[in-house]
């Protein structure tokens, strides 16, 4: 865990005290991951991890890219989905690329992306959840890939 005082293990401490300091490259626990600064090689939140991106009435994408919107009979609106290259699930229609160095993921509507997309920050809880669902991040202890979360995993 990184904070203003430096990295320290918080999992090993059961009180409010900080754990022992850790070097920046030390995996403090089984769920340790390097800091996620870029979506270029990930794209999990735009791929199979989530089924829908709900749209808010003031989202620019509604006016700027009406051809990418699904309108449901109950009034719900979200971004269109297309089959994933993995053969499992779907991905956002606005996502291009293959998540490789020579073909990083890119959002074709980045400037007009929906509020829900803007709010999802790299490395945040929703990002880590998406990464876990597509197998890019470790699952919490005791959660098996063939357990109750299996239907949400690749």
List the helices and strands and how they pair.
Elements: H1 61-64, E1 69-71, E2 77-79, E3 81-83, E4 90-92, E5 95-96, E6 106-107, H2 115-119, H3 125-133
Antiparallel strand pairs: 1-2, 3-4, 5-6
List descriptors.
two-stranded antiparallel ribbon; 2 domains; 3 helices; two-stranded antiparallel sheet; 154 residues; little secondary structure
Tally of contiguous helical segments: 3
The share of residues in extended strands comes to 5-15%
Strand order of the largest sheet: 1-2
Number of individual domains: 2
**What class do helices, strands and sheet pairing give?**
little secondary structure
Question: What is the approximate shape?
Answer: elongated
Provide mean pLDDT, rounded.
Answer: 79
Taking the sheet with the most strands, its summary is: 2 strands, antiparallel
Order of helices and strands: HEEEEEEHH
Number of strands: 6
Spans of 5+ residues with little confidence (pLDDT < 50)?
1-5, 9-14
Taking all Cα atoms into account, the compactness measure Rg is 18 Å
Helix share, percent: 10-25%
Distance between the termini: 27 Å
Quick description:
The protein is largely without helices or strands. It has two domains: 1-32, no CATH class; 44-152, no CATH class. It contains three helices and six strands, in the order αββββββαα.
Verbal overview:
There is one protein chain. This protein is largely without helices or strands and about 150 residues long. The protein has two domains: about 30 residues, no CATH class; about 110 residues, no CATH class. The chain contains three helices and six strands. The strands form three sheets. The chain has a two-stranded antiparallel ribbon with strand order 1-2. A hairpin with a 5-residue loop joins strand 1 and strand 2. The longest helix is centred in the last third of the chain and has 9 residues.
